[in-house]
Amino acid sequence: MAIRGDRGGTLRRGRTLVRSERGHVMEPMVKKEKRKLTAWVVYSKIITFWAPGFLLAKLGRMPDPNMQQAWREKIALVSLIVLICGAVVYLTIFLPITFCPEKVAQKQSDIFELNGKNGDTNVIGVQGKAYSTAQATWQSKLSFTPIPGQDLTYLFNVPIPDSCKSSSLQNFRAINFNVCAPTSGNSNPCPLGDVTSGIKTNNLKSMNDRPIGYDWSDVKNGFFVINGHVLNMTPYLLAVGSKPSTDMLDEAIFAAANKGLVDASLLFQRTPDMKAATQCLIDRFLAGELAKDTPGCFAVNLFNYAALAVIGGIVLTRFIMAVIFQYFLSWQLVRRPPRSKVRPLSYNAAAPWNGKKPQTGGATANLGKGEDDELFTVMLVTCYSEGEDSIRGTCDSLCNTDFSDARKVLFIVADGIITGHGNDRSTPDICVGLIEQEESFKDPQPCSYLAVAAGSKQHNMAKVYCGYYRVGNRRTPTLVIVKCGAPTEQTAAKPGNRGKRDSQMILMNFFSRVIYNDRMAPLDYDLFRKMHHLTNQTPDIFEIVLMVDADTKVYPDSLRLLVNCMHNDKLIMGLCGETKIANKRDSWVTAIQVFEYYISHHLSKAFESVFGGVTCLPGCFCMYRLKAPKDNGWVPILTKPEICQEYSQNVVETLHERNLLLLGEDRFLTTLMLRNFPGRKMMFMPQAICKTVVPDEFKVLLSQRRRWINSTVHNLMELVLVRNLCGAFCLSMQFSIFLDLVGTVALPVAIVLTYILIVRACMTTYNSVSAYLPLAMLIMVLFLPAVLIFITTRKWIYVAWMFVYLLALPIWNLVLPTYAYWHFDDFSWGETRKVSGEGKDKGHGDEGGSFDASTVPMKRWEDYERKRLRSIKRKERKEIDDSSSYQLPLVDDSANAGLLKNSVEDSMYYESHPGYSFLGDSSTASMNDSSNATLGNNYRGQPAMVSHRQQQQQQHYEMQSYPPGAAQADSYYSQGQPGLQYNAYEDYGAQQQQQHPAAGGGDGGLQYAAYDDYSESQQQMDYGQQGAYSSQQQPQQQQPSRQRPGGPRDYR
């Protein structure tokens, strides 16, 4: 029996994988193996046949074939959007015109129903038209009182109409038969005289030619229907007697009138003469119209009612479920968790840094400094071109949160050596200047890592500054990562810049490799040591990451509320809070965004939270699990290798892939999480609040929404294919996503149709309940959010913001989407983040050049640590040899190899480029030469090329050269199972420890030398193939390794 807490006790949602075919593994959204010719490519070429390649190259300034194909795919997408919009327009406007013309519809709406069903009783019918008898002066007294709408045509003398004078009809008795001729039983059958003069003489008032309407139940003996016209043949039947003549028309009349054949339309269509006689009968004996819609009108009305029911149902359902979530579900999640839901902190017990005799206290040190229900959290702040006030305000708000400093780390990433527009210092200078640096790590060296880019820019380098961020009495451990770029790009405009996704991947890759004890890049090892130094905790104990933009301020209780949600529902893998606008009154551009932000959170995200499927966690303020507890172990979430691999794709070729990866990384990450973990939840918590700065100029808003809208369309196209999301049929998350997708692409015509509906509502004559339905729907769609405002915030100022938003609807629904769709092939960030002196960017990941995987060595943590300890040991020996005054006791690290040592203050850095050093001699330009130089100048320092022997003498640590391809791995993450291919290495290490239990002096050196020889040969065996981190190769499958205690269980 499942434990209630493990299943998410608040929402009580069970498994959704109820069908076997839903359990399939989703294909990656970005495939490495590209198919050159697909149906989509063929369609794009067909739809743009009129634009050959040479014409695009000459006139369109698109010489690159990839640019040309992106343009063709844009035209293909726009054509599909036009088709969808055209279908919406046709179904809304032209469908009624096609199947229910206005003349027919107007006629039905004006019908006066028999028996006074419309409410007026002083009405009769003459030749199918309604006449009022309120002022009638009957010239001949009637022997009966007519019922409302009764046909009195037979009391008038109706002349033979022209339609009956055709020579081909003269053989039919009913055509010229005079029903007003005296008979033996009735000397005056037509007492009211000629029909035209009789109407005037008897003072009958016409009712604007309104027809008399008959229901099917009103058509009795003597009456029948032809093509919707009701004919009263009673006078003719009484005059001719009970037997028909021998002509075909009489037979049809008697059959229809006396045998209960109500609808005789087909009976009178047998011959051309019968068809011609039909019009004659209608002109002579018409009693009224059938008060029923024609089949076309019936189908149109049925469609309209169904559409109104669906739209109204969706609007009301979203509203009701959003209110239920706000009032009942969200409060259960944010409350302080009971002790029963607080689990012990999790860490990788099998990792080498969690040995039996850790000299630093291990992974359980200093736990008493924080509350038991406070999970270890990393607060990621990504910076690009923001100013000092903005970055400082964000960091102040994070450090002032109601959360222990012992349980959180501030993780700031500066994306390149960049000076923002209007700033007097570079972004790295600003970020580093905010912290109190640790003396032992005050002058960091650049470390290599594999960046999210294409070509040569896959190799990037970054400096890691560590220290503490002080605000008031708070002192928060802080890491500042400055992406400074490889040596070859120091003269470029923005060295080190790789985009926000790359900044996030630094953190995600680091924790993924720590959790699995996988091979690390030099930057990962540097982060490991400095994070452990600051927190006295190994990084594998961290469970949560809070992602915040550098222009966002978080409310003091937001972090704790979000962590409470993680405690209360173990199935939650991602969260976001409400984002409010900090500069709402700066301009009209900010004013029109206030209500849009409000409604997107409190209506859209609140509704999606009921299903546990929020489709977009805003990158400015969201939280993810690095790993999640399950049973007695844990499972990776954000650090799952498949997530990291797909999110770090660097080769994007198609238009779809570029819109996914280059424009909206926050929505793309949310889509990845929902696809990989459809049984878990993405939630919105309205109680956790932040404030952010929004664009205050229209050109910046236009650029931002162009990226957001295009990213939304392409991500929804991926999510709509996920079949195992929560719900079923129309009450499913998949159906909701489909409606969002259609609604998004149809926004331009939706606003046009809205205004058409408003105009029609003002011109409509409301004489029935159905006439009010479109107006009621319009009012509900536009003003129901005002009710939500009262229920959720009770701040009536938002009603004023709502009217501002409604006035700007043409901008939101017409201008912005149309601009975005036409710029599907624009992958730049445009005006959103301006850099001083920068032109229009082309997006990340499209750089040329080749990438050498050997420039980024990948080693296990043990290898780095042993190398560091060995370097320290050699340094001590060299000092002893130089002094020759005393003998230092030899230290045996074979037993403690792989353990952290806080007593060591020297940091170990490994060069990632053979023959390259960041530390030159006095004759070269050193990167940390002058304390007066700015950080920006230091980052741009040129390397000194020195020999291997010189580096050993000057830097006192060993420099290793790697053969080409040696640093390339077999798989992306070795599938998270390092045990198999390292069995030989582990067995060898155990044998060495047994053979040399107390190695010292030269023996110890021999032991390390033997280990080094073996390690390099083993590394070449592991790395021999073309590179793991080369984006052109698929991960290879490996055999499963033995289960490590405390290791990953499964991915569900």
Show the helix and strand layout:
Layout: H1 39-47, H2 53-58, H3 65-99, H4 102-109, E1 112-113, E2 123-126, E3 129-132, E4 150-151, H5 173-176, H6 195-201, E5 205-214, E6 223-226, E7 229-232, H7 234-240, H8 248-258, H9 272-285, E8 286-290, H10 295-334, E9 377-383, H11 388-399, E10 408-414, H12 427-432, E11 436-437, E12 447-450, E13 459-471, E14 474-483, H13 500-516, H14 522-535, E15 544-549, E16 552-554, H15 558-568, E17 572-581, H16 588-591, H17 594-611, E18 621-625, E19 627-630, E20 633-636, H18 641-647, H19 655-661, H20 665-676, E21 681-692, H21 698-719, E22 727-728, E23 731-732, H22 733-745, H23 747-763, H24 773-792, H25 797-807, H26 809-822, H27 861-883, H28 935-939, H29 948-955, H30 983-995, H31 1001-1023
Parallel strand pairs: 1-5, 2-4, 5-8, 9-10, 9-15, 10-14, 17-21
Antiparallel strand pairs: 2-3, 3-5, 6-7, 7-8, 11-13, 12-13, 13-14, 15-18, 16-21, 17-18, 19-20, 22-23
